[in-house]
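Reminder: ligand-aware prediction takes two inputs, not one.
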Amino acid sequence: MVNVIGLGYIGLPTALMMSSHGVKVVGTDYNQDLVATLNAGQTTFEEDGLDELFAQALDSGIQFSSEYQVCSTYIISVPTPYDKESKKIDPCYVVSAVKTVLDYAEKDAVVIIESTVSPGTVDRYVRPVLTEACRTDINLVHAPERIIPGNMVHELVSNNRTIGADSLDVGKEVVALYSSFCEGEISITDIKTAEMSKVVENTFRAVNIAFSNELAKICRQGGMDVSEVIEIANKHPRVNILNPGPGVGGHCIPVDPWFLVGDYPETASLIRTALKTNESMPEYVLNRTYEAMRENGIDSPGLVGIYGLTYKGDVDDIRESPTMQMIELMKRCLAGAGVKVYDPWVQRDEVSCQVHSMEEFLDGLDVVIVMVAHSQVKGNPGLFGGRILIDPCNVLGNGENVYKL
Ligand code: SAJ
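Here is what comes back for the chain with SAJ:
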C-alpha cells in the first residue's frame, strides 16, 4: 500500500493515477475539508481529464483520510514555500510530514519526497530527522514531479522521470512503483543530483523566458516586431526561443530558480538577472498601457481593465500570477486606483477590484490589458467591443486597436 501525503496539485493526480493502475492507495491530507470534498466524490481543482481519472481511482478503491497510514511506502507531495527575503526554501512542511510519517512507517519503509526542494535539502533537513528519531532504517528517495498544469494527466503517463536514491536497489524498487503508470524513461541517480536536476529544469525555462522578454524590450526600443524576429530565428535548426509575455507565474518557474540564487548568491548571477527581468514585465506592460492611453488621448493613469487573473491560459491557478503582481504594483504606485479585473476561470473572489461577468467588466472601460491567453480570447479581439487592447501574450491577432508588447 502507498500512502500519498498532501493531496494538492501534484499529490492528488499522482495518487489517482497509481490507484487507477492497480496500486492500493490511501491519500492523506491534514486539510479535513479537502478530504471531505474528495470523500463526497468531488475533485478539488480543474484539470483536463482529472474527473475521469478520479472516477477510475474510486472504482479501484482509493481512499482519502486525514490520518497517516501504517505502511511501507509513502509519497510526500506537500508545498515547499520560499522565504521572499532570503530566497531560500522553507522545508517546514516536508520536515513535518516526514516526522509524522516516522510515527507510522513500517521497518525499512521507503519515503519518497516528490515536493520540489533545493539541492542539499534532504541531507540538511530530512536526514537529521531520521537520525533524531533513531529511524535510520528508513529509505529516503527524491522523485521530483515534472507535470505541467493544463496537461497533467497526459504528462503523468508520458513524461520521463528521475528517481534519486541512496542505493540502486531502492531506486529500482521505486522505478517499479512508478512504472505502474509511467511510460517514460525513468533515470536513477543520487538524491542531490535529482534535487538539482529538477530545479535546473525550471531555471532553464526561467532564463530562456527572460531572454525572450529582453528581446521584446530591445525590439520595442529599436522599432522591430519581436514575434516576427523570434519566428524567423526559430527556423534555424538549433534555435528555439520561447515567447515573451507579461511576466512569469505559477509556483515553479518564478520560484525554484531563486533557490540557486539563495544558496549560491555569488555564482548564480545570470539566473538572478533573468529572474529580475521576468519580474520587471508587469511594470513594463503597465507602462506600455499608459503609453497607448496617451497616444489615444485617454487619461493616463486612468481606468484600466485587466482580463485574466490566473498565471497562464486555461487553468484556474492564480499562484504568483503576473496580474496579481500588476495589481500590487498599482496599489503601491496609484493607491489601487483605476483597475478592474475579470477572469472567466476564477469565480471565487480573489481581489477587491474583481468583477464576475464580461458585461460588468467592459462597462466604463476604454482600455483592456489581456494578461492571460485563455482560449476564449485567442484571435478574438472583437470580444472586447472595439476597446484599446494591450496584448502582451500576443494572442489576439492583429488589429488597429491592438498593442503588442
Ligand atoms: N511563459 C512565458 N513564455 C513562455 C512560456 C511560459 O512567459 O514561452 C510563462 C507562462 O505564461 C507562465 C509561466 O511562464 O506564467 C510558467 O508557465 P509554464 O506553462 O511554462 O510552466 P508551469 O509553471 O505551469 O510548469 C512548470 C513546468 N516546467 C518546465 O516546463 C521546465 C512543469 O513541467 C513543472 O512540473 C512545473 O513547472 C513544476 O511544478 O515545477
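Residues 167 and 190 are 8 Å apart (CA to CA). The longest strand covers residues 161-165. We will return to this case in the review session.
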